Amino acid sequence: MSVQQQLERAERLCNQRGVRFTPTRRHVFTLIAGHKGAVSAYELLDQLKELEPHAKPPTVYRALDFLLAQGFVHKVESLNAFLFCEHFAEHHPMQLLICTQCGNVIELHDEAINHAFEHQAELHGFAITSQSIEAHGQCRHCAGENTTS
Ligand SMILES: [Zn+2]
Ligand SMILES: [Zn+2]
């Protein structure tokens, strides 16, 4: 699906939810959607300034808060960065595999992993308020490059 199609899909969802998809929110959405892997708020700010010269850090953070709340992007906690979610229409469990070499991030949606995690927390009488399951390593592509060189 192209960035344009993703944007249209997000617009329809915002209309249904009765929330405002302002020009700045659209810009940040488009920047993240066009980015491969995770992107930091400061990288986004640099790119946003090309579209909105007066953009400041709070401009980006407010837009990111909105996009996170709508489920359009995920926060990658271990990188303090943001990742576009292609499956933003549904709420889903999430685990991330992060390649430290090329920065590619693979998003997994394994219900069983989250259930097991939540079950273990319950056994400890622990109430989870937020969680992230993230692994760092090497993707298939980067591993392949290493063996041939
Ligand atoms: Zn997702
Ligand atoms: Zn890689």
Automatic annotation (TrEMBL):
Record keywords: Cytoplasm, DNA-binding, Iron, Metal-binding, Repressor, Transcription, Transcription regulation, Zinc
Pfam families: FUR
Compartment list: Cytoplasm
Keyword Glycoprotein: no
Source domain of life: Bacteria
Positions of the C2H2-type domain: 99-119
PROSITE patterns on file: ZINC_FINGER_C2H2_1
Subunit structure: Homodimer.
NCBIfam families cross-referenced by the UniProt entry: PRK11639.1 (NF008646)
Family to which the UniProt record says this protein belongs: Belongs to the Fur family.
Name of the featured protein: Ferric uptake regulation protein
Organism listed in the record: Oceanimonas smirnovii
